Amino acid sequence: MISGDTILLALLLVTCINMARYLTALRSLIYIMREAHPLLYQQVDGGGFFTTHGNMTKQVRLYSYLKTKEYHHHHDPVFTGKCDRVRELFILSAGLLSVTLLMAFFV
C-alpha cells in the first residue's frame, strides 16, 4: 500500500518541476517580447520583472494580456506560440499547486 506521504511527496515534486518549467518559459517569453512587442515589454517592466523591486501592477498586466489572449492578433508566430505555452503552463501549475495544497490538508 502506498502511504499518503509518498503520494504527497510525488505530487510536490511534480508541482515543483512544473513551476520551474513555467518560470523558465515566462523568462524566455519576456526575452522574446523585447524584440517582438517592445511596447508590451515596457508596459510589463520587462527588465525588472523578476527583480525584488518589480512592480506588481505591471506584472498583472502581463497576466491579463495572456488571460484575454490578446496575443492572437500579433504577427510573430514565435511570440504567439510562446504566449500560448506560458498560458498553458500557468494554468497547469496553478491547478497542480491547488491540488497539492488540498492534498496536504487531507494527508
From TrEMBL:
Query: Where does this chain mainly localize?
Result: membrane
Q: This protein's superkingdom?
A: Bacteria
Tagged with keyword Ribonucleoprotein: no
Q: Where in the cell is it found?
A: Cell inner membrane; Cell membrane
- Its topology with respect to the membrane? Multi-pass membrane protein
Coiled-coil parts of chain: none
Which InterPro entries does the record cross-reference, listed alphabetically? Answer: Universal_stress_protein_B (IPR019598)
Membrane-crossing ranges are: 6-24, 89-106
Q: Keyword Zinc-finger: yes or no?
A: no
Gene Ontology cellular component annotations, sorted alphabetically: plasma membrane
Alphabetical keyword list: Cell inner membrane, Cell membrane, Membrane, Transmembrane, Transmembrane helix
Q: Which family does it belong to?
A: Belongs to the universal stress protein B family.
Name of the protein in question: Universal stress protein B homolog
Q: Which organism is it from?
A: Vibrio amylolyticus
Gene this chain is encoded by:
uspB
